[in-house]
Amino acid sequence: MEKVSFQIDNKKCEALYGQMLVDAARDNGIYIPTLCNMQGTKPCGSCRVCTVKINGRYATACTTPVACGMEIESETEEIKNIRLGLIELIFAEGNHYCPTCEMSGNCELQALGYRFGMLAPRFPYQYPDREVNTDCPHLIIDYNRCIRCKRCIRSIKDIEGKSYFAFKNRGNKIEVTIDTEMAKTMSKELANLAMENCPVGAILVKETGYRVPIGKRKYDNNMIGSDINATNTVKTEGVL
Amino acid sequence: MSKPIIATASLAGCFGCHMSFLDIDERILKLVELVDIGKSPITDIKTFTQEYDIGIIEGGCCNSENVHVLKEFRKNCKVLISLGECAIMGGLPAMRNGIPIEECLNEAYLDGPTVKLNKEAIMPNDEELPMILDKVYPAHEIVKIDYFLPGCAPRADLIWEALVALVTGNEMNLPYEVVKYD
Q1: What is the ipTM of this complex?
Q2: A77 CB-contact burial (10 Å; exposed 0-12 / middle 13-18 / buried 19+)
Q3: Residue B148's closest chain A neighbor by CA?
Q4: Do B92 and A234 touch (CB under 8 A)?
Q5: pTM of the entire predicted model
């Protein structure tokens, strides 16, 4: 297959033609932070956390295929500040009570907050009034934590390829919903997969919880992205 | 030059942050070489006698007394630090923010499954009691806060590093493990 060459932060990179930028960067040992993106499913670019500057223009790295001669800025102060702002907005928009959340320590949103050195969001907390859905036999869906990344809609499907989850409403009232009739047929394995695929703690499996002790969870000691690009220096924004 | 003076307070919190503060263990001996501890539940000093340098706030504001104490701290401290998730975002007490206050009080004093002795259906309403607020507010929505130290509770190492950095003017050197939101 045809190869294309491009640059990320002045580092020369090569990738296969048609590869998405986040995947191409990963193959070249460069981590571009992502939240809604999931390897193996069609990207949708809803969270914008993977924003980069390509030849001076902003674009999401998960939905942009690489092309010859691209000059990409990723770890610049400007881009890092945009990404931090996006994470802060998500924290302020929902009810993200980390101390009470079962996914704390395994949560990608939280892990990105740690990576970007967020100590407190700069935006006012909204404290929205949202529900918890316990109608499904295997799942608890906590809308307080949902970030509308669409991962569950894109990846949790039945044998015919029909999605269990869907969006309802529009604009800032958009919400993920589940077909409760269909959910009765959902296997335990699929329910576990739904919980695993959810980047935050919005989808939880019933009858189990807090299985991994504090200190051994995914992001307790390892920064998100350190498996791709090992940097373990924390630069906290706005602290002392 | 005299030593900087620290004040601490626990508002709508569980005292966990103060416990974590004491978790600096023997480093507290080094701390008292660096600073004086003034008004604080640790020293049991109740009033401000002079201008303080650093105020440490645990917990958000859930009633009028919390607001009063917080404003006193802002008036008397040069630097104010929000310590822990409750001060930063309301924390566990803020989980009531989506529920009307009347419903909360009814559940606590009238309708709750463990309410048995309140036969006359008395709702606490003495003027000596602080007024409960419509919701729980983070400290920085009431007064200006200068620094934030997250965690539930914040790791002792984080508190120690932050205080030493603030007092000595050196940069903080934080390992990844100490800045956590839980």
Answers
A1: 0.91
A2: exposed
A3: A119
A4: no
A5: 0.92
